[in-house]
Design a protein that fits this description.
By secondary structure, the protein is α/β, with parallel strands linked by helices. The protein has helices at residues 29-41, 62-72, 103-117, 136-149, 162-171, 191-200, 219-222, 224-233, 237-248, 261-268, 277-285, and strands at residues 3-6, 9-12, 16-17, 46-48, 82-87, 89-90, 98-99, 124-127, 155-158, 176-180, 203-204. The chain has one domain: TIM Barrel. It contains eleven helices and eleven strands. Strand 8, helix 4 and strand 9 (155-158) form a beta-alpha-beta unit. It is globular and about 55 Å long. The two termini are 28 Å apart.
Length: 286
C-alpha cells in the first residue's frame, strides 16, 4: 500500500477509523476484532481511536482497549502500526459530548490512554476538540509537555481552524504532526485547513471522509459524479471518494470508519486507485 508521511513516521495512505466498533450500533467483539484484522491484512498501518469512543457510561477507553486486543491477537508484525488516539472530549453515556481541555485533564488522560493501549509512549496523541473555557494555547501546551516528557511521540490537533493550526504549531515549537478535521465529498468546509496543512507539510486526517456512518452507504446516490467515476472504473464509490481526497494533497490520510471486515478491506484498496487529473477536477467541481 502507498505510504505517506505523518510526522516522523510513514503510514498507509488510508487509515482505519475504529470509532464505529465501540459506539451506538457497534458490532460484537468478534466482528470488531475481525474488522481491525482485515484492515491490517490489507496493509493499513494507521488506526485512529480516542478515549471518548464508547457507548455507555463507565466504559471510557472502550475503543482503545479493543484496538489493543486486536493488535495483540493479530498474527502479523505490528511494529509499523501507528495507533493515534485523542483526549479532551468526553461522553457521559447519554449520547452527548462535552469538552475538557484543561492541561491537568489532558496530562492524566494521555497517561490513562497509554496504559489502555499497552504502550510506554503513545505514537500520536491529538487534542480532540477546542474547549471554549480554556485558552487554546494552554490546552496545546499540555501536549508540548507530554512530548517533552516522552509520554507521547507525536502531537496533533483535531477540529481546528487555520489560526489554531498556526497557534498549535507555534506552541509545539514546529512539532505539530497532524490535523484531524471533518472532510468529505459532502463536507468541504475544511478545504482551507487541508490546503494550509499541505503548505506546512503537516498531515491532514479527514474524519468521516465518506460522510459518516449513516451516509457512507448512500454516497453514490447523493453524489452522481462520484458514482459515474466508480462505474467507469469498476470500483466502489467509497474507493473513489477516498482516492479523490488522496489526490488533493500528498499530506492527506483519510481515516474511514468501518464496522465490517469487507468495508475495511474495500477502503484500504482506495490507496491503489489513481484518478486522472480530469477525474479529480470533475469530482472537485461536483
Amino acid at each position: 500500500m502507498e505510504q505517506r508521511k505523518l510526522g516522523n513516521r510513514a503510514v498507509s495512505a488510508v487509515g482505519l477509523g475504529a470509532m464505529p466498533l465501540s459506539i451506538e450500533g457497534r458490532p460484537d467483539e468478534e466482528r470488531a476484532i475481525a474488522t481491525v484484522h482485515a484492515a491490517l491484512d490489507a496493509g493499513t498501518t494507521l488506526i485512529d481511536t480516542a478515549d471518548a469512543y464508547h457507548r455507555d457510561a463507565g466504559e471510557v477507553g472502550h475503543n482503545e482497549e479493543l484496538v489493543a486486543r486486536a493488535l495483540a491477537g493479530w498474527g502479523g508484525d505490528t511494529s509499523q502500526v501507528l495507533v493515534a488516539t485523542k483526549g479532551g472530549s468526553l461522553r457521559p453515556g447519554d449520547g452527548t459530548w462535552y469538552q475538557d481541555g484543561r492541561p491537568e485533564h489532558l496530562a492524566q488522560a494521555a497517561r490513562a490512554s497509554a496504559k489502555r493501549l499497552g504502550v510506554e509512549a503513545i505514537g500520536l496523541y491529538q487534542f480532540h476538540r477546542p474547549d471554549p473555557r480554556v485558552p487554546y494555547a494552554e490546552s496545546v501546551g499540555a501536549l508540548r509537555d507530554l512530548l517533552d516528557e516522552g509520554v507521547i511521540e507525536m502531537a496533533g490537533i483535531s477540529n481546528a481552524s487555520v489560526a489554531q493550526i498556526d497557534e498549535a504549531n507555534d506552541v509545539l515549537g514546529g512539532r505539530l504532526a497532524s490535523v484531524q478535521n471533518q472532510f468529505s465529498p459532502a463536507f468541504r468546509s475544511s478545504m482551507g485547513e487541508l490546503e494550509h496543512c499541505a503548505r506546512l507539510g503537516i498531515a491532514f486526517l479527514p474524519w468521516s471522509p465518506l460522510g459518516g456512518i449513516k451516509d457512507a452507504g448512500e454516497l453514490g446516490s447523493r453524489h452522481a459524479a462520484f458514482q459515474r467515476v466508480a462505474d467507469a472504473r469498476g470500483v466502489s464509490v467509497q474507493q473513489v471518494a477516498l482516492a479523490w481526497e488522496l489526490a488533493l494533497a500528498p499530506v492527506v490520510v483519510p481515516i474511514p470508519g468501518s464496522s465490517r471486515p469487507r468495508t475495511a478491506t474495500d477502503s484500504a484498496r482506495a490507496a491503489e486507485l489513481t484518478l486522472s487529473a480530469d477525474e479529480v477536477a470533475e469530482l472537485s467541481e461536483a
